[in-house]
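Annotated sample (chain length 355).
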Amino acid sequence: MKSRELDFRGIGTALKQQVRLNSEHHLVVEGDSLEVLRKIPDNSISLILTDPPYHATKKKNIYGDTQFAKDNEYLDWMAMYAVEWRRILKPNGSLFCYCDSSMSARLEVLFSEQFNILSHVVWTKPNAPGFDGWKGKMKKENLRQWYGHSERIIFAEPAQEGNLHRSPFGQYLREKRTASGLSGHQLTEMTGAYGKVNHGGAVSNWEAGRNTPSRDQYSKICTAILSTGKVDSMLPYEDIIRPFIIDGTKEFTDVWNFESVRPYKGKHPAEKPIDMLKHAIAATTYSDDIVLDCFGGSGSTAVAARLLNRKSVTIEIESDWVESIVNRLTDLEVTVGSALQDEETITDVKLRVNS
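Output written by the structure step:
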């Protein structure tokens, strides 16, 4: 989609002083992510999939994990990210934010000022014996609470001002319908979107943000509104309807079972499994969408995005990891190019660089 390409170029231009890799598919940026985020243009990112310092874990080998003396200092810091994330996300964008279980409730409340919280995902780690960390080694009799063997992922969408669902699409549809001079009942009749229980129809539900129309239904909405001659244009489906693409063959509940990344030379201490990242990206983006990770770490989010034919923006503050990410993505392009020459699909490429 041309609009994505223009957005990607605009981001590259805005961040050119700090870009360490600028290619057709990837932007790798070195710097403090909060400062970098403030330079990214409004409404230019389709998905934020990121893994900030957890604070509660206090791991010295993870940058920023020990920098806050008090919980409120950490929450104030994350609140600044939430404001920037809301600003740079497209109206139909999504957010996945990893966090520790002990901080998740407070982060949800904090994020709810800027976002509609859609799911609180529990990531379990069904690792094989010998690869399950302290779970297998620790003395269970010393526990004084349930052992934390999961992480949390807050899944959210940008919110509009108002109450309840605060849907960007709902507001957009209401504004366009009102400008066209159509009543909700008239638009319902013109689109055939009647409800099963009554004739209030789906239009009222869409405007309230309870759900969204299918591609076919949205096409009928556009035709009806544009036919009045009072509205000049309607946004393409991919620019206004938040994607959520899932079926029974994939992990569709809010409990995700993906094994942790096993130790290997050069592994990032907070590295997330490629399959889990691909799962999140595939469900919530369209092809060529732009995926942002503002705590780049190992660069795995960018790898997962590329394997699914998405563009990526990766921000990392530590120079050594920036270099590692650039090398990993450069190697990835060689592998993907070879696979395409062999008529394989990108999603079939099995790769974890440096593993």
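Annotation: The first strand starts at residue 19 and ends at 22.
Annotation: The beta strands are 19-22, 26-30, 45-50, 89-99, 115-124, 150-158, 255-257, 290-293, 311-316.
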